[in-house]
Amino acid sequence: MNKHIVYHIPVCPFSQRLEILLELRGLQNAVEFRVVDITKPRDPELLRKTRGTTALPVLETEEGHIIKESLVILRYLDEVLEGPRLRRADPREHAIESMLIAKEGPFTMAGYIYVMNQDRAQKEAHNDKLLSLYRDLNDFLMEHNPDGTFLFEEFGLAEAVFAPVFKRFWFLDYYEGFELPVGPEYARVKKWHAACMAHEATGQVNEEEIVKLYYDYALGAGNGALVEGRSVSSFAFQPEWQSRPMPPRDKYGTSATDVDLGLVDIGAILADANSDQTYAHPTSG
Ligand SMILES: N[C@@H](CCC(=O)N[C@@H](CS)C(=O)NCC(=O)O)C(=O)O
């Protein structure tokens, strides 16, 4: 039997939602993940399947149908995979989790616009905007489950949607010094946030990885685009992020080079230059 195939960009928050679902179900092998390198031109065959759109993840079902949008794929897999559903069974409770999920788009957008902002004078406004959205989440959780940790008793559909975004927002902690203030307007969402971050099903990425890979986002270049003066994206798979140094925190003041970021191996460049010389003068010994 054919398997579901998910075309994805590793470390993408939208595809992490699907990985969380599979982890919770213990069905990591129910889907074949096929990696797409966004720093390279897209495979024409995949473009044909998606009818020209490039956003990932994309699910190709066992029958060969294409499903786009992570929230749609998440709900689809939740329904078709065996095991207990992540979504609330009760229609009213499902409506409540769906209302929370509906807040995901503006929330995610606010964090990405903030990290990509290049105008120091706008920093405060971006910070205020994100804080207002956190207060809104706080208020929602206070309304529906004031004394709990998650939206309901346990980690569910809304948590699978938000946890990957919370993890990406490590880039705000690092590059913008973002912190949730102390106080009742944030206490409930802080508790939720901490529980999502710590949940065992959400460990697909870590802070160091996010900070290193998203350096170019902090310089305003998203989705594998190249920053001026650089030849390798911080989103490149090679060299592996583990081998690279931490990027500079000051995104407004400095723009690190490929070498500073450990994206090119200076030893290999020198060896290459030497072998070029040998090639240019083959008889020179
Ligand atoms: N609303 C979409 C967003 C997907 C999205 O923006 N994916 C990014 C990767 S994190 C992407 O594919 N970027 C490359 C592109 O759009 O060509 C979803 O939830 O699936």
Structure report:
With 285 residues, this protein is mainly α. The protein folds into three domains: 4-80, Glutaredoxin; 91-202, Glutathione S-transferase Yfyf (Class Pi), Chain A, domain 2 (Up-down Bundle), CATH 1.20.1050; 223-285, Glutaredoxin (3-Layer(aba) Sandwich), CATH 3.40.30.10. It has twelve helices and four strands. A four-stranded mixed sheet has the order 2-1-3-4, covered by helices on one side. Helix 1 (13-25) packs across helix 7 (157-168), helix 4 packs parallel to helix 7 and helix 6 (123-144) crosses helix 9 (184-198). It is globular and about 70 Å long. The chain starts with a strand and ends in a 5-residue tail after the last helix.
> What structural class do the secondary elements suggest?
mainly alpha
Rg from Cα:
22 Å
CATH class of the largest domain: Mainly Alpha
Contiguous uncertain segments of 5+ residues: 278-285
Instruction: Give the distinct bound molecules.
Output: glutathione
CATH fold node name of the largest domain: Glutathione S-transferase Yfyf (Class Pi), Chain A, domain 2
CATH architectural name of the largest domain: Up-down Bundle
The proportion of residues in beta strands is 5-15%
Average residue-wise pLDDT = 93
How far apart lie the N and C ends?
A: 60 Å
List keywords for this structure.
Glutaredoxin, 3 domains, four-stranded mixed beta sheet, mainly alpha, Glutathione S-transferase Yfyf (Class Pi), Chain A, domain 2, 12 helices, 285 residues, disordered C terminus, binds glutathione, single chain, globular
